[in-house]
Amino acid sequence: MEPVTHFLTGACLGRAGLNRKTALATLTLTLAAEAPDLDILARVKGPAFSFAHHRGFTHSFLGIPLVAIAVVGFVYLIWRLRGRKTNDPNLPPRWGLLFIYACLAGLSHILLDFTNNYGVRPFWPYWEKWYSWDIVFIIEPVMLGFLFLGLVIPLLFSLIDKEIGARRRESRGKVAATLALAGVVLMWGVRDYEHRRAVSALQARTYN
Predict the structure, then answer these.
(1) Burial, 171: exposed, middle or buried (Cβ in 10 Å; 0-12, 13-18, 19+)?
(2) In the 8-state DSSP scheme, what is residue 61?
(3) How distant is the alpha carbon of residue 197 from its chain centre?
(4) Fewest beta carbons within 10 Å, which of 3, 41, 46, 90?
(5) Residues 157/165, Cβ–Cβ less than 8 Å
(6) Which residue from 40, 53, 32 is spatially nearest to 124, judged by alpha carbons?
(7) What gap in Å lies between CA 115 and CA 96, rounded to an integer?
(8) How far is CA 129 from CA 92, 97, 125, in A?
(9) Tens of pLDDT along 77-111?
(10) Angle 95-114/64-81 helices, nearest 10 degrees?
């Protein structure tokens, strides 16, 4: 998938409730959800090298923990530069949990890339086989709409109702983000059904 979808997915994962367990959760999830695409740096060695290594190690189950370490390290650096400040002083960062969150976001990246026709090699370098669900295009407007609204709608309600409490704002944000992620899963189900019907129709024909 393109980067915006990955960023929005990570943000929705954080807003869906994971941000209540540790500080810096949403930032970590958002960055880690896109971090596997750092393999784009392989382009400095030329297009052939980049093509051979795209969706390789950083998109594999072996590479995700290493990418997660890099993301958490980057977030730790930002936290130190900010003077160890967070939005909620009563909710300190839990670095072990943030590493788990970064791994989860990295796995979400593999899952999203698996749904399009390009596919992924999750067992690289031990197994070079590509896996592809082939139900979603690289740029999916419906998915972008779900994720974007899941983050924006609570903000709009907050602007309308300025006297709303912080706890109620968090509750609205959690519900909206959870519904957005559920909408993505529902869309996958519909697209998978349509894909299976299309494949069955093609297989039912006799070609000369």
Answers:
(1) middle
(2) T
(3) 28
(4) 90
(5) no
(6) 53
(7) 29
(8) 42, 32, 10
(9) 999 998 888 888 889 999 999 999 999 999 999 99
(10) 130
What is the distance of C-alpha 49 from the center of its chain?
Answer: 26
List, in sequence order, every beta strand (DSSP E) within 125-173. Answer: none
Q: How far apart are CA 168 and CA 161, in angstroms?
A: 11
Residue 168 corresponds to which tokens in the numbers above?
């109620």
Please name the residue that has the structure tokens 């086989």. 129
DSSP 161: -
Cα–Cα distance measured from residue 33 to residue 172, given in angstroms and rounded to the nearest whole number:
23
State how far the Cα of 110 lies from the Cα of 138, in Å rounded to an integer: 13
Give this prediction's pTM.
Answer: 0.88
| C-alpha 46: how far from chain center | 27
Q: Give 125-131 contacts, CB < 8 A, sequence gap 24+.
A: 125/56, 125/57, 125/60, 125/62, 126/62
Angle at 126 between CA 120 and CA 130, to 5 degrees: 25
Q: What letter does residue 205 receive in the DSSP assignment?
A: S
Q: Per the structure block, which two tokens stand in for 190?
A: 């519909």
- Map tokens 């999203």 to a residue: 112
What are the DSSP E strand ranges found in the chain?
A: none
Question: Which segments of 9-166 are extended strands (E)?
Answer: none
CB 153 within 8 Å of CB 15 = no
